[in-house]
Write a structure and sequence with these properties.
The protein has one domain: 3-Layer(aba) Sandwich (Rossmann fold), CATH 3.40.50. The chain has six helices and eleven strands. Strands 2-1-3-4-11-10-9-6-7 form a nine-stranded mixed β-sheet, sandwiched between helices. The longest helix is centred in the N-terminal third of the chain and has 18 residues. It is globular, with a radius of gyration of 19 Å.
Length: 264
């Protein structure tokens, strides 16, 4: 009888832990750039693997906006690594579902081109993400520069130090007045914000994290690169980020897509 109660208690603990997990959905889609760049699904799967190494997290990947509505239930955070995410989130097909998620206070992360929007959706997207990219006012520049922490005390900066990074840097991002710049580089002689946070208020309250890095897939072989993105996603989901940063262990040797040759 005692063993039965012990087993029942153990099951309750396990079930309770499962119930308390933070659910994170990462959305990518097929390639729309040359191989080695904008590898959305590969990047999402790698990030999900890293996220799931951290206690209390359950991360899954969807190829495009999920057709199964169950994937949108009980979500704590949504991540887009895709073409301009505003045009997916705010499309006539998906806007009601996405609005409901933001009204529930969901965390939101947009990586690289997912920070983009068409001109019509841009002002609304700015409210959701805190900033946006469009070639009407922005530009791009491939360069190798020091990735600098504007706010080293922010949890997203936990566990990693400034380092040199070669990436496609976005120029002249349009940021909301309430967005908090987090990371920057100096390229083409000017400082450019490449990551920011937003504490959303009102009916869409919650946390957002925008980061324009992520053009070259092999950058995911760099631990600080993985750590800042995973830290950011955890922060939006209101998962405490350890002082040493998130767990982001991978084996680059097992992923041929991480070969440095792909960045040439």
């Amino acid at each position: 009888m005692k063993l039965k109660f012990l087993l029942l208690a153990l099951l309750q603990v396990i079930y309770g832990q499962a119930e308390n997990k933070k659910n994170i959905l990462l959305i990518g889609h097929k390639l729309d750039h040359p191989f080695g760049t904008h590898m959305y699904l590969q990047g999402c799967n790698l990030l999900a693997n890293c996220l799931n190494q951290n206690p209390g997290v359950s991360a899954v990947v969807s190829n495009g906006w999920p057709s199964d509505p169950d994937l949108l239930k009980n979500l704590d955070a949504l991540v887009f690594y895709s073409s301009p995410a505003a045009d997916i989130l705010l499309s006539n097909k998906n806007k009601e579902q996405s609005q409901a998620l933001f009204e529930q206070g969901i965390g939101y992360t947009a990586i690289h081109w997912a920070t983009g929007s068409n001109l019509d959706n841009g002002p609304r997207y700015e409210q959701l993400l805190g900033g946006w990219f469009n070639f009407k006012f922005s530009g791009i520049n491939i360069d190798k520069q020091r990735l600098l922490q504007i706010d080293p005390n922010h949890p997203i900066c936990n566990g990693w130090s400034e380092y040199d990074l070669r990436d496609e840097f976005y120029l002249r991002m349009k940021l909301n007045d309430k967005a908090n710049p987090l990371l920057k580089v100096k390229t083409k002689g000017k400082e450019e914000i490449v990551a920011w946070t937003l504490e959303r208020e009102g009916i869409i309250k919650g946390r957002s994290f925008g980061i324009t890095l992520g053009h070259f897939h092999p950058n995911y072989a760099v631990e600080p690169f993985r750590k800042v993105i995973v830290n950011g996603i955890l922060w939006t989901a209101k998962v405490p980020v350890p002082k040493t940063g998130a767990k982001v262990k991978i084996d680059p040797a097992k992923d041929i897509n991480l070969s440095p040759d792909l960045k040439k």
